[in-house]
Each structure stands twice: as C-alpha cells, then as structure tokens.
C-alpha cells in the first residue's frame, strides 16, 4: 500500500505532537520534518515524531501529499512564497495558525493551480514549547477547525479531515470569516485583556506589595499574555477588525459593571456574579463544538479511486490512548 507522504514544517510542540499522533493511529504515512533550527529537527527525530528530516525546506516538501505549516504566523507568508512553485500537483497545504483570512489570501497569491490550501486550527493548549512538550494524545477529543477556501477540492478537504480524525480530534467545518470572528472572542480577546490587566497592575506604585500577596487568580487570568509577543502582535493586527469589535463590547460591559458596583445594590451585584457563574457552567457543558463529517462518498469518484488506499488507512480513528509554537 502506498503511504501518504506528510511533511511537517515546524517541529515544535504542535508539529511533533501531530507526527506522534499520526504514527500512534496506525495510519500508513511517511513523515518528513523540517525546522529552521537543527536542534529542533534532531529532537523531533529522537522522540520519533518524524521518520526523517531535511534541512532544506524545498527538499523536505518534495513529493509530499500534505504539507503542514506548524509555524508561527509571522513565518507563514514567506514559507508559502518559497513553496509556491515547488509542490507537486495535487499537494494539499494546511496550517495551525489561529487567524485564517490572511493565510488563505497568502495561499491564493502563492500556490499554483492544482495545489490546494485547507486551513486548520487545533483548539488545544500545550504545556510548554518544543519537542519536550509534544504528546501523542494532545489532540484526543479536541476540536480541530477545518477551514476551506474556494479553490479547495473535496479531496483536499477529505485528506485534511482524515488526518484530523486520525489524530483523535473532532473536525469542525467553518469558513475563514466565521473562524476569525469566533477566535477573536475566544482566543485573541483574552490575550489582549490579559496583557492589559498586567499593564494596569504593573503600573501601580504598590506593585512590590502586590507581588507579596499575589494569588493564583491573577496568574490564571493573565496566562494568555505568556504567548510569544511577535505572534500576539501579528494576530491582533491581522484580525484587527474582529478584535476591535469585541473590545468595544468589552468596554461597554466594563462600564456597566463599574456602574453596578458604584450603585452598591447588594441584590444586583449578587445577580451579576450568579449570572456569570451560570454562564461559566453553561460554557463548560457545551464545551464540545458541534461537528460535521465528510465521508469518502463525498469525494469525486475518480479521486476516490486514486486515493482510496491512502485515505483508507488515514480514515481509521485513533486509539483511545496541544502553546503551539504558533498560537
């Protein structure tokens, strides 16, 4: 059986976890890794996340059926430009970035006809960076956004979907605009608010005393600010419109809370926090996003016949047994 050739560009926690998960699933894959840092490549091979590595990006992607860009957002555009005319016809390119509209536009300007971009975003969190933080079960039961753009074929979407399910994740099909609107609220806004909270607290003349009594509350609330500054900057600028809209909503809400507390009404303040608790519980209960499925019957017959052997192995669900270096 011909193996599906997968190249993972970026061998950090997410890229290595992907390689480990695919191999753990028993999928018939041949995984090549590439990272601009030689040490990262050596570590990835040491933990068995890839079968081989290549220091040259073009050589690493030569003949690949699927190229996964598990790299920081700021590196994706140049990588797509470098790969543009080098990928074989029929190759599929996906990524793990949390903003999709600009990446889809970069792919459209760089990838030739016959090479397809299907965006991806695994909704996971890692406990560190690099190969040491990689886990084969990182994506188990996680939501993985599959973001198709107009030129993508059903076969390309199917291939990415099969990789997602082989990793044990649940595909969530969404378009680029909806994806970026949703992530602005659930990912990007919390990062901005965490940074703003740290800025406000850090500007206090009582900062030294605050550190002595600092609790887990502040640590947990500001954890999103731990993300790489360059990536947070690029995410905010590239998803600016959506984030600004949510900041306006947040500003209005904070004004309401200010007025509520200034009013001093015990019942109203209590009701505010009860509503917040109820919303939190509801969020937890509805944690699993609705998913939809793409089956082989949705793939064009000619492509189904050509790819069946490779897709069949990837279609098996993973056994029961996620800061991307690009948040």
Gist of the model:
By secondary structure, this protein is of the alpha/beta class. The chain has helices at 13-25, 38-46, 57-61, 73-83, 101-110, 154-166, 176-202, 207-213, 216-221, 229-238, 240-263, 266-285, 301-314, and strands spanning 4-9, 29-34, 52-53, 66-69, 92-95, 116-122, 143-148, 170-174.
The first-to-last residue Cα distance is 36 Å
The 3D shape can be described as elongated
**Structural class of the helices, strands and pairings?**
alpha/beta
Give the helix proportion (percent range). 40-55%
Determine and state the CATH class of the largest domain: Alpha Beta
The fourth-level CATH homologous superfamily of the largest domain is NAD(P)-binding Rossmann-like Domain
- Poorly predicted segments: 287-327
| Mean pLDDT across all amino acids | 86
How much of the polypeptide forms β-strand, as a percent range? 5-15%
Radius of gyration from the CA trace? 22 Å
Tell me how many strands there are: 8
Q: Report the total helices.
A: 13
Q: Order of strands across the widest beta sheet? A: 3-2-1-4-5-6-7-8
How many structural domains does the protein architecture include? 2
CATH topology of the largest domain: Rossmann fold
Task: Give the oligomeric state.
Answer: single chain
Spell out the helices and strands N to C: EHEHEHEHEHEEHEHHHHHHH
């Amino acid at each position: 059986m011909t193996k599906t050739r997968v190249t993972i560009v970026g061998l950090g926690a997410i890229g290595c976890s992907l390689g480990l998960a695919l191999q753990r699933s028993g999928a018939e894959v041949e995984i090549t890794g590439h990272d601009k840092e030689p040490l990262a490549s050596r570590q990835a091979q040491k933990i068995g996340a890839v079968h081989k590595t290549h220091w040259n990006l073009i050589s690493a992607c030569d003949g690949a059926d699927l190229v996964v860009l598990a790299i920081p957002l700021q590196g994706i555009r140049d990588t797509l430009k470098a790969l543009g005319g080098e990928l074989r016809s029929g190759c599929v390119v996906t990524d793990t970035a949390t903003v999709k509209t600009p990446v889809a536009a970069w792919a459209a300007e760089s990838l030739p006809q016959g090479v397809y971009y299907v965006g991806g975003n695994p909704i996971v969190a890692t406990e560190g960076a690099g190969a040491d933080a990689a886990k084969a079960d990182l994506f188990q039961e996680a939501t993985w956004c599959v973001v198709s753009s107009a030129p993508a074929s059903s076969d390309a979407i199917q291939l990415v979907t099969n990789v997602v399910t082989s990793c044990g994740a649940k595909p969530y099909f969404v378009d680029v605009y909806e994806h970026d609107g949703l992530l602005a609220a659930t990912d990007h806004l919390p990062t901005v608010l965490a940074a703003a909270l740290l800025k406000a607290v850090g500007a206090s003349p009582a900062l030294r005393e605050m550190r002595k009594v600092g609790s887990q509350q502040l640590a947990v609330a500001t954890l999103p600010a731990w993300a790489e500054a360059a990536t947070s900057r690029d995410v905010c600028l590239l998803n600016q419109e959506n984030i600004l809209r949510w900041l306006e909503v947040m500003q209005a809400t904070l004004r309401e809370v200010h007025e509520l507390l200034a009013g001093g009404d015990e019942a109203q303040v209590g009701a505010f926090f009860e509503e917040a608790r109820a919303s939190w519980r509801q969020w937890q209960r509805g944690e699993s996003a609705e998913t939809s499925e793409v089956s082989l019957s949705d793939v064009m017959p000619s492509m189904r016949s050509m790819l069946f052997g490779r897709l069949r192995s990837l279609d098996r669900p993973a056994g029961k047994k996620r800061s991307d270096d690009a948040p």
